[in-house]
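Hello Y.,

Per our agreement to keep a running log of every chain we model this quarter, I'm adding this entry. I've kept the format consistent with earlier entries: sequence first, then predicted structure.
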Amino acid sequence: MQEKREYRMEELARLAGITVRTLRFYRERKLIPPPRREGRIAWYDDHHLARLRTIAALLDRGHTLSGIAELADAFDHGRDVGELLGLGEPTEEVPVRLTPEELAARFEGEVTPENLAAAMDLGYLGTDGDELVHISRRLLDVSSALVREGIPLAEVLTAGQRVREHAEALAELFADLILRHAPEESLLHLRPLARSVVEAELSLALDRRMRKQTAGDRGTG
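Predicted structure for the entry above:
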């Protein structure tokens, strides 16, 4: 098991690529959890370093400090992580709690600040104290399987964003169809039918795509 490292303020700031003044500002704004105190000495650890690197990546992607502070406050003070991740409504998805080390083990070498920020942008990932919370066990398992097959996590997340856009359109289509002919309560018990249609159509589309690929390979053989 990897030994937990701790840092004084100056070392943490240097590793995070920020000034001590900025680190103090982030601490005052509650963007990072309080350090462990030993007398007058404040000790920070790898969770603080990961948070600082994620803040930097989120800022690079256009997030504001106020928005990041709101998320950090919610995560660190026990507000409902499921609600923050969009799981407040009935769902078939099961969230997964992981330590940073467990997440790193699933995506060896791919858990960069940029990828963490992208996962947070998508709503796939949040933090709850020292733990990370993934919105869906199925999405987590599929993402890690694709990475094990050699597909970069950044590209998996980009594909996830595109799939999200199509899924939102499909959800609107089915919701509009059902609400034109049935009461709103029907949305919940009819959702398995909608999912079955999408799964069947995707399976058929993949069949067509593979036949097309096979025909193309024969044509060039």
